[in-house]
Amino acid sequence: MKKYLKYSLLLITLVSFFSCSSDDSKQEEVTEPVKDPVITIKLASEFAIQQYNVGEIAPEVTIENAEGKTPVYQWSIKVTGKDGVTKDSIIGDSKNLLFITPKTANCVVDFKVTVDKIVKEASAKVTVSGTGKTYTAKALKLIDYLPAPNYAMGSYATKEESLQATQTSLNEGGSVNLGTFGGYIITTFDHTVVNTYGKRDFTVLMAAGTASVKYSPVSIAVAYDANKNGIADENEWYEIAGSEYYKSTTVKNYELTYKKPNEAAIPVTGTLSWQYDTAYLPWTDNKNASGNITRTNTRRRNNYYPAWVGDSYTLKGTKIFIPTKDVSDGAGTSYNVGTFDWGYGGIKDPSIDISWAVDKDGKKVHLPGVDFVKVYVPTFTALGSSDLLISIFQEVSDLNFPK
To answer: For this UniProt entry, which residues form the secretion signal (predicted)?
Structure first.
Protein backbone atom coordinates (compact mmCIF):
# COMPACT_ATOMS: atom_id res chain seq x y z
CA MET A 1 0.00 0.00 0.00
CA LYS A 2 2.83 2.34 0.90
CA LYS A 3 4.59 1.45 -2.34
CA TYR A 4 1.47 2.23 -4.33
CA LEU A 5 1.03 5.55 -2.54
CA LYS A 6 4.66 6.43 -3.24
CA TYR A 7 4.23 5.94 -7.00
CA SER A 8 0.95 7.82 -7.00
CA LEU A 9 2.55 10.84 -5.36
CA LEU A 10 5.40 10.74 -7.88
CA LEU A 11 2.95 10.65 -10.77
CA ILE A 12 0.97 13.58 -9.38
CA THR A 13 4.20 15.54 -8.96
CA LEU A 14 5.30 14.89 -12.55
CA VAL A 15 1.91 15.80 -13.95
CA SER A 16 1.90 18.98 -11.93
CA PHE A 17 5.40 19.83 -13.16
CA PHE A 18 4.60 19.38 -16.82
CA SER A 19 1.31 21.21 -16.44
CA CYS A 20 3.09 24.21 -14.97
CA SER A 21 5.76 24.07 -17.68
CA SER A 22 3.09 24.04 -20.37
CA ASP A 23 1.32 27.06 -18.89
CA ASP A 24 4.59 28.95 -18.53
CA SER A 25 5.41 28.48 -22.26
CA LYS A 26 2.36 30.47 -23.45
CA GLN A 27 3.43 34.01 -24.39
CA GLU A 28 1.13 36.93 -24.16
CA GLU A 29 0.53 38.62 -27.53
CA VAL A 30 1.95 42.10 -27.45
CA THR A 31 0.29 44.63 -29.80
CA GLU A 32 2.64 47.31 -30.98
CA PRO A 33 1.07 50.78 -30.90
CA VAL A 34 0.42 52.26 -34.36
CA LYS A 35 3.04 54.85 -35.07
CA ASP A 36 2.24 58.04 -36.91
CA PRO A 37 4.21 58.83 -40.07
CA VAL A 38 7.30 60.94 -39.52
CA ILE A 39 8.14 63.48 -42.25
CA THR A 40 11.45 65.27 -42.58
CA ILE A 41 12.06 68.04 -45.15
CA LYS A 42 15.36 69.58 -46.14
CA LEU A 43 14.87 72.64 -48.37
CA ALA A 44 17.36 75.36 -49.25
CA SER A 45 16.29 78.73 -47.91
CA GLU A 46 16.89 80.74 -51.13
CA PHE A 47 16.80 80.24 -54.90
CA ALA A 48 17.58 82.62 -57.78
CA ILE A 49 16.29 82.34 -61.36
CA GLN A 50 15.54 84.60 -64.34
CA GLN A 51 12.10 85.37 -65.70
CA TYR A 52 10.82 82.88 -68.31
CA ASN A 53 13.52 80.44 -67.23
CA VAL A 54 12.73 77.20 -65.44
CA GLY A 55 14.40 76.63 -62.08
CA GLU A 56 14.02 73.29 -60.34
CA ILE A 57 13.44 73.35 -56.59
CA ALA A 58 14.20 69.87 -55.29
CA PRO A 59 13.74 69.28 -51.56
CA GLU A 60 14.94 66.19 -49.73
CA VAL A 61 11.93 64.45 -48.21
CA THR A 62 12.23 61.50 -45.83
CA ILE A 63 9.10 59.67 -44.69
CA GLU A 64 9.02 56.95 -42.02
CA ASN A 65 6.19 54.75 -40.74
CA ALA A 66 4.16 55.30 -43.88
CA GLU A 67 3.89 51.80 -45.34
CA GLY A 68 1.03 51.67 -47.84
CA LYS A 69 0.34 55.39 -47.58
CA THR A 70 0.87 57.81 -50.45
CA PRO A 71 2.32 61.24 -49.69
CA VAL A 72 0.58 64.29 -51.10
CA TYR A 73 2.76 67.21 -52.17
CA GLN A 74 1.69 70.82 -52.60
CA TRP A 75 3.56 73.96 -53.59
CA SER A 76 1.93 77.35 -53.22
CA ILE A 77 2.62 81.07 -53.15
CA LYS A 78 0.63 83.87 -51.59
CA VAL A 79 -1.24 86.04 -54.10
CA THR A 80 -3.12 89.25 -53.42
CA GLY A 81 -6.27 89.60 -55.48
CA LYS A 82 -7.94 92.71 -56.84
CA ASP A 83 -10.06 92.79 -53.69
CA GLY A 84 -6.90 93.15 -51.58
CA VAL A 85 -7.32 89.70 -50.02
CA THR A 86 -4.18 87.54 -49.86
CA LYS A 87 -4.60 83.81 -50.30
CA ASP A 88 -2.61 80.73 -51.23
CA SER A 89 -2.32 79.94 -54.92
CA ILE A 90 -1.31 76.36 -55.74
CA ILE A 91 1.53 76.15 -58.28
CA GLY A 92 2.57 72.48 -58.12
CA ASP A 93 1.59 69.03 -56.87
CA SER A 94 4.74 66.93 -57.25
CA LYS A 95 7.79 66.57 -54.97
CA ASN A 96 10.06 68.69 -57.16
CA LEU A 97 8.83 72.07 -58.37
CA LEU A 98 9.72 73.39 -61.82
CA PHE A 99 9.37 77.08 -61.05
CA ILE A 100 8.87 79.59 -63.84
CA THR A 101 7.33 83.06 -63.88
CA PRO A 102 7.05 85.87 -66.43
CA LYS A 103 7.56 88.60 -63.83
CA THR A 104 10.59 89.86 -61.94
CA ALA A 105 9.83 89.64 -58.24
CA ASN A 106 10.79 88.33 -54.84
CA CYS A 107 8.42 85.72 -53.53
CA VAL A 108 8.18 82.90 -51.01
CA VAL A 109 7.16 79.42 -52.10
CA ASP A 110 5.55 77.20 -49.49
CA PHE A 111 5.96 73.42 -49.59
CA LYS A 112 3.62 71.04 -47.80
CA VAL A 113 3.84 67.26 -47.47
CA THR A 114 0.81 65.35 -46.16
CA VAL A 115 0.80 61.67 -45.21
CA ASP A 116 -2.45 60.45 -43.74
CA LYS A 117 -3.22 63.22 -41.22
CA ILE A 118 0.38 64.24 -40.63
CA VAL A 119 1.50 67.50 -42.27
CA LYS A 120 5.02 68.93 -42.58
CA GLU A 121 5.78 72.33 -44.12
CA ALA A 122 8.80 74.28 -45.35
CA SER A 123 9.39 77.51 -47.24
CA ALA A 124 12.00 79.08 -49.50
CA LYS A 125 12.59 82.55 -50.91
CA VAL A 126 12.82 82.86 -54.70
CA THR A 127 14.41 85.88 -56.35
CA VAL A 128 13.41 86.34 -59.99
CA SER A 129 15.60 88.72 -61.99
CA GLY A 130 15.00 90.16 -65.45
CA THR A 131 16.74 89.12 -68.66
CA GLY A 132 16.96 92.58 -70.19
CA LYS A 133 14.98 91.38 -73.22
CA THR A 134 11.71 92.63 -74.65
CA TYR A 135 9.04 90.00 -75.27
CA THR A 136 5.79 89.78 -77.21
CA ALA A 137 2.65 87.81 -76.41
CA LYS A 138 2.34 86.20 -79.85
CA ALA A 139 4.22 83.23 -81.30
CA LEU A 140 5.40 85.04 -84.41
CA LYS A 141 8.48 83.12 -85.49
CA LEU A 142 7.72 80.52 -88.15
CA ILE A 143 9.42 77.13 -87.77
CA ASP A 144 7.64 75.08 -90.43
CA TYR A 145 4.58 75.14 -92.64
CA LEU A 146 3.03 72.60 -94.98
CA PRO A 147 -0.57 72.89 -96.18
CA ALA A 148 -2.75 69.95 -97.11
CA PRO A 149 -4.64 70.15 -100.44
CA ASN A 150 -7.12 73.00 -100.64
CA TYR A 151 -8.88 75.16 -103.19
CA ALA A 152 -6.82 78.29 -102.33
CA MET A 153 -3.28 76.92 -102.57
CA GLY A 154 -0.54 79.55 -102.75
CA SER A 155 1.34 79.67 -106.04
CA TYR A 156 4.88 79.17 -104.74
CA ALA A 157 7.48 77.27 -106.72
CA THR A 158 9.62 76.27 -103.73
CA LYS A 159 9.10 75.60 -100.05
CA GLU A 160 11.46 78.47 -99.24
CA GLU A 161 9.13 80.85 -101.08
CA SER A 162 6.12 79.52 -99.17
CA LEU A 163 7.93 79.90 -95.83
CA GLN A 164 8.99 83.47 -96.61
CA ALA A 165 5.48 84.44 -97.63
CA THR A 166 4.01 82.77 -94.54
CA GLN A 167 6.46 84.54 -92.22
CA THR A 168 5.56 87.87 -93.80
CA SER A 169 1.89 87.14 -93.28
CA LEU A 170 2.49 86.37 -89.59
CA ASN A 171 4.48 89.59 -89.13
CA GLU A 172 1.72 91.63 -90.72
CA GLY A 173 -1.13 89.97 -88.81
CA GLY A 174 -2.37 88.06 -91.84
CA SER A 175 -3.79 84.56 -92.14
CA VAL A 176 -2.38 81.23 -93.35
CA ASN A 177 -4.34 78.56 -95.22
CA LEU A 178 -3.78 75.06 -93.75
CA GLY A 179 -6.06 73.12 -96.10
CA THR A 180 -7.68 69.81 -95.17
CA PHE A 181 -6.43 66.93 -92.99
CA GLY A 182 -2.85 67.20 -91.75
CA GLY A 183 -2.06 70.69 -93.03
CA TYR A 184 0.03 72.35 -90.32
CA ILE A 185 1.96 75.37 -89.14
CA ILE A 186 4.59 75.45 -86.36
CA THR A 187 5.47 78.70 -84.64
CA THR A 188 7.53 79.58 -81.58
CA PHE A 189 7.35 82.22 -78.88
CA ASP A 190 10.25 84.46 -77.89
CA HIS A 191 9.72 83.18 -74.33
CA THR A 192 8.46 80.08 -72.56
CA VAL A 193 4.70 80.25 -72.00
CA VAL A 194 4.20 79.39 -68.34
CA ASN A 195 2.00 76.43 -67.44
CA THR A 196 -0.01 78.38 -64.88
CA TYR A 197 -1.53 76.06 -62.33
CA GLY A 198 -5.33 75.82 -62.70
CA LYS A 199 -5.57 78.37 -65.55
CA ARG A 200 -5.68 78.38 -69.35
CA ASP A 201 -2.31 79.34 -70.81
CA PHE A 202 -2.53 80.30 -74.50
CA THR A 203 -5.09 80.70 -77.23
CA VAL A 204 -5.21 79.62 -80.88
CA LEU A 205 -7.18 81.94 -83.14
CA MET A 206 -8.46 80.80 -86.53
CA ALA A 207 -10.54 82.45 -89.22
CA ALA A 208 -14.20 82.56 -88.23
CA GLY A 209 -16.79 81.02 -90.49
CA THR A 210 -20.08 82.48 -91.67
CA ALA A 211 -23.50 81.09 -92.48
CA SER A 212 -22.23 80.08 -95.93
CA VAL A 213 -18.50 79.54 -95.27
CA LYS A 214 -17.55 76.85 -92.75
CA TYR A 215 -14.10 76.08 -91.31
CA SER A 216 -12.78 73.10 -89.38
CA PRO A 217 -11.52 73.28 -85.78
CA VAL A 218 -7.80 72.52 -85.41
CA SER A 219 -5.79 70.24 -83.16
CA ILE A 220 -2.78 71.44 -81.20
CA ALA A 221 0.56 69.93 -80.20
CA VAL A 222 3.11 71.61 -77.93
CA ALA A 223 6.81 71.29 -77.20
CA TYR A 224 8.92 72.50 -74.28
CA ASP A 225 12.57 73.05 -75.17
CA ALA A 226 13.89 71.02 -72.25
CA ASN A 227 17.48 70.80 -73.52
CA LYS A 228 17.53 74.49 -74.54
CA ASN A 229 18.93 73.80 -78.00
CA GLY A 230 16.38 76.09 -79.66
CA ILE A 231 14.83 73.19 -81.56
CA ALA A 232 11.57 71.34 -81.07
CA ASP A 233 13.06 67.85 -80.95
CA GLU A 234 10.88 64.91 -81.94
CA ASN A 235 10.75 63.52 -78.40
CA GLU A 236 9.62 66.87 -76.98
CA TRP A 237 6.24 67.01 -78.74
CA TYR A 238 2.98 66.32 -76.89
CA GLU A 239 -0.60 66.56 -78.09
CA ILE A 240 -3.29 68.59 -76.36
CA ALA A 241 -6.00 66.06 -75.51
CA GLY A 242 -9.21 68.00 -76.01
CA SER A 243 -12.82 66.93 -75.73
CA GLU A 244 -12.64 64.57 -78.74
CA TYR A 245 -9.32 62.86 -77.99
CA TYR A 246 -10.62 59.79 -76.13
CA LYS A 247 -13.78 59.23 -78.20
CA SER A 248 -14.20 55.95 -80.08
CA THR A 249 -14.59 57.82 -83.37
CA THR A 250 -11.15 59.43 -83.02
CA VAL A 251 -8.30 57.74 -84.93
CA LYS A 252 -4.81 58.04 -83.43
CA ASN A 253 -1.65 57.88 -85.57
CA TYR A 254 -3.57 58.48 -88.79
CA GLU A 255 -1.61 58.99 -92.01
CA LEU A 256 -2.97 60.31 -95.27
CA THR A 257 -1.01 60.37 -98.52
CA TYR A 258 -2.00 62.84 -101.23
CA LYS A 259 -1.00 62.25 -104.85
CA LYS A 260 -0.29 65.01 -107.33
CA PRO A 261 -3.17 65.47 -109.80
CA ASN A 262 -2.59 64.75 -113.46
CA GLU A 263 -3.52 68.07 -115.00
CA ALA A 264 -3.57 66.47 -118.48
CA ALA A 265 -6.23 63.93 -117.46
CA ILE A 266 -9.75 64.38 -118.77
CA PRO A 267 -12.07 65.45 -115.92
CA VAL A 268 -14.51 62.84 -114.65
CA THR A 269 -17.69 64.76 -114.12
CA GLY A 270 -20.17 63.68 -111.49
CA THR A 271 -23.94 63.49 -111.46
CA LEU A 272 -24.29 66.89 -109.76
CA SER A 273 -23.54 70.12 -111.60
CA TRP A 274 -20.82 71.24 -109.18
CA GLN A 275 -18.81 67.97 -109.54
CA TYR A 276 -16.35 69.14 -112.20
CA ASP A 277 -13.81 66.30 -111.67
CA THR A 278 -14.56 63.51 -109.17
CA ALA A 279 -11.20 61.81 -109.83
CA TYR A 280 -9.08 64.94 -109.51
CA LEU A 281 -6.76 64.31 -106.54
CA PRO A 282 -6.17 60.70 -105.40
CA TRP A 283 -5.45 59.83 -101.77
CA THR A 284 -4.71 56.74 -99.69
CA ASP A 285 -4.37 56.27 -95.94
CA ASN A 286 -2.77 53.82 -93.51
CA LYS A 287 -6.14 52.17 -92.81
CA ASN A 288 -6.41 50.62 -96.30
CA ALA A 289 -8.80 53.27 -97.53
CA SER A 290 -8.51 55.34 -100.68
CA GLY A 291 -10.46 57.86 -102.69
CA ASN A 292 -10.35 61.10 -104.62
CA ILE A 293 -10.81 64.76 -103.78
CA THR A 294 -13.38 66.28 -106.13
CA ARG A 295 -12.54 69.46 -107.97
CA THR A 296 -15.61 71.67 -107.88
CA ASN A 297 -16.97 73.56 -110.85
CA THR A 298 -16.45 77.00 -109.29
CA ARG A 299 -12.78 76.17 -108.60
CA ARG A 300 -12.02 74.21 -111.76
CA ARG A 301 -9.14 76.58 -112.57
CA ASN A 302 -7.65 76.46 -109.05
CA ASN A 303 -4.61 74.41 -108.10
CA TYR A 304 -5.27 72.27 -105.01
CA TYR A 305 -1.79 70.75 -104.68
CA PRO A 306 1.40 72.47 -103.37
CA ALA A 307 3.77 72.88 -106.32
CA TRP A 308 6.89 72.59 -104.17
CA VAL A 309 6.37 68.99 -103.06
CA GLY A 310 6.93 65.87 -105.14
CA ASP A 311 4.45 63.51 -106.77
CA SER A 312 2.99 62.64 -103.37
CA TYR A 313 3.32 63.58 -99.72
CA THR A 314 2.08 62.18 -96.42
CA LEU A 315 0.61 64.11 -93.49
CA LYS A 316 0.07 62.63 -90.04
CA GLY A 317 -1.94 63.31 -86.91
CA THR A 318 -5.00 62.40 -84.90
CA LYS A 319 -8.06 62.22 -87.12
CA ILE A 320 -11.28 63.48 -85.54
CA PHE A 321 -14.83 62.94 -86.72
CA ILE A 322 -16.81 66.12 -87.24
CA PRO A 323 -20.55 65.89 -87.83
CA THR A 324 -21.82 67.39 -91.08
CA LYS A 325 -25.31 67.35 -92.57
CA ASP A 326 -26.47 68.13 -96.09
CA VAL A 327 -29.43 70.47 -95.65
CA SER A 328 -30.04 70.93 -99.38
CA ASP A 329 -32.04 67.73 -99.96
CA GLY A 330 -29.05 65.87 -101.34
CA ALA A 331 -27.99 68.60 -103.76
CA GLY A 332 -24.71 69.10 -101.87
CA THR A 333 -25.04 72.86 -101.92
CA SER A 334 -25.61 73.65 -98.23
CA TYR A 335 -24.28 71.99 -95.07
CA ASN A 336 -24.47 72.28 -91.31
CA VAL A 337 -21.13 71.60 -89.63
CA GLY A 338 -20.57 70.64 -85.99
CA THR A 339 -17.78 71.72 -83.67
CA PHE A 340 -15.78 70.53 -80.64
CA ASP A 341 -16.30 71.44 -76.99
CA TRP A 342 -12.82 72.34 -75.68
CA GLY A 343 -9.12 71.93 -76.30
CA TYR A 344 -8.99 73.07 -79.94
CA GLY A 345 -8.53 76.18 -82.02
CA GLY A 346 -11.34 77.51 -84.17
CA ILE A 347 -14.07 76.82 -81.58
CA LYS A 348 -16.13 79.06 -79.29
CA ASP A 349 -13.46 79.06 -76.56
CA PRO A 350 -10.05 78.45 -78.17
CA SER A 351 -8.06 78.84 -74.94
CA ILE A 352 -5.69 75.98 -74.09
CA ASP A 353 -4.42 74.59 -70.80
CA ILE A 354 -0.92 73.15 -71.11
CA SER A 355 -1.93 70.61 -68.45
CA TRP A 356 -4.05 68.88 -71.11
CA ALA A 357 -0.89 67.65 -72.87
CA VAL A 358 -0.46 63.87 -73.27
CA ASP A 359 2.31 61.63 -74.60
CA LYS A 360 2.05 59.25 -77.55
CA ASP A 361 0.30 56.69 -75.33
CA GLY A 362 -2.31 59.17 -74.17
CA LYS A 363 -0.83 59.58 -70.69
CA LYS A 364 -0.83 63.01 -69.10
CA VAL A 365 2.52 64.79 -68.85
CA HIS A 366 3.56 67.73 -66.70
CA LEU A 367 5.32 70.51 -68.60
CA PRO A 368 6.55 73.68 -66.88
CA GLY A 369 5.65 75.58 -70.03
CA VAL A 370 5.85 75.47 -73.83
CA ASP A 371 8.04 77.12 -76.43
CA PHE A 372 6.64 75.69 -79.69
CA VAL A 373 3.06 75.22 -80.88
CA LYS A 374 1.93 73.11 -83.82
CA VAL A 375 -1.55 73.74 -85.21
CA TYR A 376 -2.93 71.17 -87.66
CA VAL A 377 -6.23 70.15 -89.26
CA PRO A 378 -7.63 66.92 -87.75
CA THR A 379 -10.68 66.51 -90.03
CA PHE A 380 -11.03 65.13 -93.54
CA THR A 381 -14.32 65.88 -95.21
CA ALA A 382 -15.87 67.82 -98.07
CA LEU A 383 -18.94 70.05 -98.16
CA GLY A 384 -20.21 69.44 -101.65
CA SER A 385 -20.21 72.51 -103.86
CA SER A 386 -18.53 74.48 -101.03
CA ASP A 387 -15.50 72.24 -101.53
CA LEU A 388 -13.19 70.87 -98.83
CA LEU A 389 -13.66 71.70 -95.16
CA ILE A 390 -10.41 73.55 -94.44
CA SER A 391 -8.86 75.75 -91.73
CA ILE A 392 -7.23 79.17 -91.88
CA PHE A 393 -4.72 80.05 -89.15
CA GLN A 394 -4.39 83.50 -87.60
CA GLU A 395 -2.31 83.50 -84.40
CA VAL A 396 -1.18 81.83 -81.19
CA SER A 397 -0.98 84.10 -78.15
CA ASP A 398 0.12 83.86 -74.51
CA LEU A 399 -2.95 84.41 -72.30
CA ASN A 400 -0.99 85.31 -69.16
CA PHE A 401 1.53 87.65 -70.75
CA PRO A 402 2.28 90.54 -68.38
CA LYS A 403 0.38 93.68 -69.29
So the answer is: 1-21
